[in-house]
Specification:
ATP hydrolysis activity; 4-stranded antiparallel β-sheet; alpha/beta; ATP-binding; P-loop_NTPase; 10 strands; ABC transporter ATP-binding protein; transport; binds adenosine-5'-triphosphate; 10 helices
């Protein structure tokens, strides 16, 4: 008796059916904290890039990380996103997800999106196609523009275009966008997969004052639904968006609070802002 074609399909070795895949763990934010970083240490050839670093970020918060060059901001982002393994310490996403047990790709799937300083959009594709490709890539499907989007996915792309203020530009090639618009598009490319936590590195570097202002509006509008951590050197920008600022110095959190509180903190005046004064 020949097997029914559907049963052959069912026994293909290379298929994993959705009901057999491990369920996507939910991020447990029952204690309002979405990110716990505790006792992180990391040395590079004896130099302590992270030094017993502790950081707690609440769900829905917009947190700014500031600190002089070499303070450890990028290294911290690298550890949270699985790019670098610390020597010791723990990193938890919500109450129960131990991020140090997952690799970079899995951490992205779990809902942590990272945007590097330089935009890396596909310049030869339209704005809408960039979002579509990002959505498919994030879902682990071989990215192609030929497979159809579901209506839910189309709605999501439209809503992201709206959020990033590029509805009018959706048919433009990304290469023709301004620097600021490319940065927003790249934020949109993260948003299509609805991340819980967004890590954004120097979003306003190289932007015009108008673009900087719109970026402030965009990032503040994302907080609440998402948790946003912004690394930024532009203090005026930080002041315009941040409720809580964490100051990193020599691999540790030196001070935390509102911009006014940290600027008036004696340790900060001494080691960081004092240098500019
Ligand atoms: N892979 C590495 N190997 C050796 N040293 C490293 C490595 N990565 C970072 N470092 C060092 O660790 C320190 C912290 O760097 P990090 O990039 O985290 O600082 P940062 O706060 O992000 O600075 P910036 O504002 O300049 O981006 C620096 O002195 C850097 O040279």
């Amino acid at each position: 008796m020949t097997a029914h074609p559907h049963s052959l399909e069912l026994f293909r070795r290379d298929r994993v059916w959705p009901f057999l895949m491990p369920p996507e763990p939910r991020v447990d934010v029952s204690h309002q904290v979405i990110l716990y970083v505790e006792g992180l240490n990391l040395s590079f050839d004896g130099f302590k890039a992270l030094n017993d670093l502790n950081l707690y970020v609440n769900d829905g918060e917009l947190r700014c990380l500031i600190g002089a060059n070499g303070a450890g901001k990028t290294t911290l982002m690298d550890v949270i996103t699985g790019k670098t393994t610390p020597d010791s310490g723990t990193v938890h996403f919500g109450q129960s997800i131990d991020l140090l047990h997952h690799d970079e790709a899995r951490i992205a799937q779990l809902g942590i999106g990272r945007k590097f300083q330089k935009p890396t959009v596909f310049e030869a594709q339209t704005v809408a196609d960039n979002l579509e490709l990002a959505l498919k890539t994030n879902k682990g499907i071989l990215p192609t523009l030929f497979s159809q989007l579901s209506s839910e996915q189309e709605d999501r792309i439209h809503s992201v275009l709206h959020t990033i203020g590029l509805v009018q530009q959706k048919r433009l090639l990304a290469g023709n966008l301004s620097h600021g618009q490319k940065q927003w598009l790249e934020i949109g490319m993260l948003l299509v997969s609805e991340p819980r936590l967004l890590l954004i590195d120097e979003p306003v570097a190289g932007m015009t004052p108008e673009e900087t202002e719109r970026t402030a509006e965009l990032l503040t509008s994302l907080a609440g639904k998402h948790t946003v951590i912004v690394v930024e050197h532009d203090m005026e920008f930080v002041r315009s968006i941040a409720r809580t600022v964490s100051v990193l110095h020599q691999g540790s959190v030196l001070a935390e609070g509102t911009m006014d509180q940290v600027q008036n903190h004696p340790d900060v005046i001494e080691v960081y802002l004092g240098e500019d004064a």
